[in-house]
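I had to read the description of the data format several times before I understood it. Each protein is reduced to its one-letter sequence and a matching series of backbone shape codes. The format is easy to grasp once an entry is in front of the reader. For illustration, here is how one protein appears when written out as sequence plus structure tokens:
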Amino acid sequence: MKLSSALLVSSASATAVECDISHLLSDFTLLLRGRVKGQTLVNKGKIRKRAQILLHESGDFSDWFVSCSADKKIVGTIRCYSDGSLVEILPDCTERGCNPADLEIWNTKTYDSSDGCKRGYTASGLEMHGNSCYRKCNQPNGDTLLSNKKLKCHCTNDGCSYGFNRGGSVDSIWITRWNGVPLVTPCDVATTTTSTTTTTASTTTPITTTPSTTSTSTTTTTTTTTTTTTTTQQSADWHCANVVPISDYEIALGISTSDMNWDCTDSNSDGSFCTKSCPSGFVMRGTRKTKECSCRNATNCQWKKNLSDCEVTLKIQQITCLFNLP
């Protein structure tokens, strides 16, 4: 029996070509992926990790995605051709991250999971993309101030920098309001002034050269005193009301403003966030529990955002009925 030429061609094309990818699988900086959001492979092949090969079955070549383990958004491809050759268009996985020195006043420690920063640092000390937590700065009086916003390391194709989430985007930690006041409340700024005082004193001393001749010598002494004074310049004195307001519903339940519990990042200062918890006997009726003190100027500060109400905790009381039996 003779096979037709068409059948012979079909059988030949069904023979899979194997490309060795063992060196890629052993490279822990790379990640082989069959799917990437927003991108499409030309002719998706098949990976056999145990055999450490990329299979090519039809067409000019079969391809597969390769991304960086540290940042999956950086993507390249590999192609296995019919002749068994493997062409690699690998992503640039050069170590990326934020330089902690760019935090400036907030670069006071290595931030870890105890601070809320769970991504950590690279081997060379760069802060990983997405590392986000509240930061600490040291004030001139020795106190430690917690940032009023979570500061994060954010990397794009243009590089990495520190910022904070704002309205669905990431803004620089140094951005200011329209009036020049920074959105990330800074530490107080220490300023040093130096004053110099110069005092000149003249002393006249008689000198006798002969018993009958006397002259005088005048000595001038100049004394310079330098005084250095360090003062602390407070940030803008903008504050909301001392007491965070509660809802009319809560007031109707008999809750007073002094009963409510608030945990604030910076008291009632501009930019402070206060998290609400209900007093004993009440429970939160929702998940919105954080208010922000927001100021347009020194005389226009308000507590922003409507919060979930506290309501009375329901208790099931068992009523025992006693019956008089005949």
